[in-house]
Amino acid sequence: APRYPPQASLCLNCEDSSSGVIIRDMMRDFLSFAQDRYQLRQTYPPPTLYTRIVKEACRDLQFNTATQTQIENYKHQMGIPQDLTSTKNVLSVGFHVRRGNKLLKEARAYTAREYVEKMWSVLTIANNKNDNNNGTIHMKMPPIQYCFVASDDYKAVEEMKTALKAHPHVSCTVQTLTTPHETGFNESYPNSGIHFLSQLDILMDTSFFIGTFNSNVGSLVSVLRACSQGPKDREHYSRSYGVDEDEWFIYPKTVSPG
Length: 258
Fold this sequence. Notes:
Elements: H1 6-13, H2 19-37, H3 48-60, H4 65-77, H5 83-86, E1 91-96, H6 102-105, H7 112-127, E2 144-150, H8 154-166, E3 173-176, H9 192-205, E4 208-211, H10 216-228, H11 235-239, E5 240-242
Parallel strand pairs: 1-2, 1-4, 2-3, 4-5
């Protein structure tokens, strides 16, 4: 099988790599690797592209020990509850909401309501939800306890809080690493590298992921989630879903970390 580009493997597995280097190599080389070797779009169940990238990503795209320690410390510092991703008994949903300059040419702005409606439709199917004659909703899964919102724009977090609160069947606690001063991706922000990687780490481990498949983050997270999700949790790209597309694909000619 083709090997992942060696520079990315070196950066992600060596102990002295900086966060910025990891981000650039992870996103740029991930895309060039996939686009050079496989056709761009795949349906589910996934044939060559998704399954082979998962196999190689789970082997080569793992955080090194020093970076994982920084991530855990940063999440603790930012007040992220440990049980958000550490237990199968807690139902959590991770959202990646694109905003900022990514909406100029690459994609339209999907509303917070669209993300929430996508989440509920996914949970409905996964839960085999049904209404009896008196309209009672029977839930087999536990209620959603945490909703984690990853974005480079704090306004998106506020929009998601409003949309989640307005949904009649959702009462999750909203968590985020996004701070009020963030209005778009900026590498000059303090801790921008470890901040971004910490968001990835959480999105990889939530019970469900809702994002956009035409986003580099969405494509990458849906691959890396297969490394930590159990065999029963691997339906539909390890419980990864797009508000823009139902099927996973690599979006061509895009190499920035958004």
